[in-house]
């Protein structure tokens, strides 16, 4: 009797959920994407809205109720080769779409945690992704689930079956390229950058027609390279990035300038601009390339229709410390003297927080957000760093043959005061929540180096903690004053994204495995749950049948475990994993 | 009861040995018993190791074949995609395995034989290469320039490259050298290419007047052009840092016995002139490592 009754209820709920799914089963539209931040019943963009604010107006889970939050299901990604899980889930019509390590995609029933389908990209031998085999998430458009692979392809899968609809080679993986970022969809185009820090690479941002994968435009991120646009299937010149070569690079080094836009981008409809960050310049030895080396370590504002660079802002001109400028630029408005300022903010690897005018790229203000910065003493009125010359790693050609050059101790370390993990902006508190790390590095010239059996001039470097009791610091920062309102110190480096909600809560994860919920105004820890492995993914929240849900991936990995020194000592006992955890309040 | 446990153990061990034979670097005995050695060589690295229509070719390939033959085992190549430096290649291919697939080779060729390098210590004083044993230098490598004598009469010193374009491989010492020495006076003349091969193509197309690179590669490609217009220069490279260095092999530290066996084979190949002949077959200039020069010269 009791069993039968249960079955009936179960089948009824399946029937209901099927009906519900059936009704709402329209594909994702540009409008869905544009309104994602305020439509709380789905998450169809990386960043909970194309601005990337990672703010949700949901408040059922709040500082009062969060202590009752509990897991409703956990989904294992399986596979023996569990690596870092840096994905942000997407949710649409009762289905969650996530990516896993090794270029895998999963569709999961959000009611039950059941797997609907799984797609495993076949990866070729000999790919050399620099920093673990991670992926940061999918893009949704129409009935397609689109993601980038470690062998630098874009793959579009059908949302119901996981079958390949189209597949495009973005770059040649043999030349050192890969894709790990989530692509974004703007005006029916899927837009992606590429990873590839190796020398010889030139960064490019590309837009494809999301429906069929046809290339629409291509924009090189290094000065001197021609951009292209395709009209009626015809490839046409579309202007050289920066006008002409050789203005900010010596000799021919612009031909292989690096500047890979490997972390994807954001978009703001008010100004109709894409914002993509670029990686550090090549080669590593900055003494070979006097000049600003545009557009390395910069934020680029790109016209989504034409692929033209509208403005640029370079955070680290003539980089010598491996300070990629890829970190996300988040659009936000604020009032000053009764005027609305269309601003955008970014927390750079180099330790400075920048507030820019997003209409024209003008520098509004900047301030250190890292506790310790040694390479620059501050910023000029235009936002350029004031270098500390003695802190630039030395010129290897000046070091005596066979002798290790002098060691420079520099902060932040090359992994940055903030790395890839996205920060969040609350429209309620008007604060940014920045997942930062306090660490420094030793760099020295290493004349005893070899590359492919050939003598080479290398650099030795090692990453070190600055403080005994913490590396990671989650900081609540006021973009108008630069004041740190509160901070939460964490023993291991932070490597996961942040989410903030109207429930006055900030959520993030730690390598120790905890999903943390903190009071957005005070930083007080209101919720703590151990997911069993380190969190390096980005949490999301959404609403379904009147209840607020929260999901995050758990699975320790990413770039941190690949480096040695005393940082490795702090993290070596963390267990690997690979699962999605979904939470809600009791009914 | 006990017996079945024992059988299970035997079964487990035999399974393990089947899988281990491809997953881990192995001892000399394991290699002989399995009748196969896995040798790591670089992918697409002419004239050292490359594949042409599925066939393995090059100097290192021939040397590896000879070693396998002398050990009396079959040979399997592990084609290495180069990491940023040799340290990464040794980690990915000899002791730890790349994180994509945790497999390694038994032996790796084209590893520097350099005491300072093998004894390198990291920032906390640990030996960087304690996991690998480097041995059996088989040639001495250096830098060389090939030039078009219709454009440059003679390369007596590097000074001519203030006036003539010269091709170099991207991110190599020749590039760093031309960009930085003599206060960068030659930097504008340094034209960069993804490979030495494409630099030679450019020289043949009259786009540049010279190419600088690894001596073995330069002499190989100079021969390929088979024209008296392209000559090898005999100039010096002042202030280049390392003028020459030895190239040898490496095994995992635990498997010294394999290292000794291979070193004996290589030494015999050097004494018989076989290695020299392999280089000459590939039109690469051969220089004997200093380690052997005394021993080789004594009998005379």
Summary keywords:
A: 587 residues, mainly beta, Methanol Dehydrogenase, Chain A, Thrombin, subunit H, six-stranded antiparallel sheet, 3 helices, disordered N terminus, B: alpha/beta, D-Maltodextrin-Binding Protein, domain 2, nine-stranded mixed sheet, two-stranded antiparallel ribbon, 11 helices, 11 strands
From the N-terminal CA to the C-terminal CA of chain A, the straight-line distance is 25 Å
- What's the domain count of chain B? 2
- Quaternary structure: heterodimer
- In what range is the share of β-strand residues of chain B? 15-25%
Largest interface: A-B, 44 and 49 residues
What is the typical, i.e. mean, pLDDT of chain A? 92
How would you sum up this structure, described in words?
The complex is a heterodimer of chains A (587) and B (300). Chain A is mainly beta. Chain A is built from 3 helices and 40 strands. Chain A folds into 2 domains: 51-86 and 334-587, 8 Propeller (Methanol Dehydrogenase, Chain A); 183-326, Thrombin, subunit H, CATH 2.40.10. In chain A, strands 11-12-13-14-15-16 form a 6-stranded antiparallel β-sheet. Chain A has a 5-stranded mixed β-sheet with strand order 1-34-35-36-37, with no helix packed on it. In chain A, strand 11 (184-186) and strand 12 form a beta hairpin. The radius of gyration of chain A is 23 Å and the shape is globular. Chain A starts with a helix and ends with a strand. Chain B is an alpha/beta fold. Chain B has 2 domains: 23-140 and 244-297, D-Maltodextrin-Binding Protein, domain 2 (3-Layer(aba) Sandwich), CATH 3.40.190; 142-232, D-Maltodextrin-Binding Protein, domain 2 (3-Layer(aba) Sandwich). Chain B is 40% helix and 23% strand. Chain B has 11 helices and 11 strands. Chain B has helices at residues 2-23, 28-34, 59-71, 86-95, 115-118, 173-184, 196-204, 215-225, 256-271, 274-281, 290-297, and strands spanning 36-42, 50-52, 55-57, 74-80, 107-113, 132-148, 166-169, 190-193, 210-214, 230-232, 244-252. Chains A and B meet through strand 30 and strand 31 of A and strand 5, helix 6 and strand 8 of B.
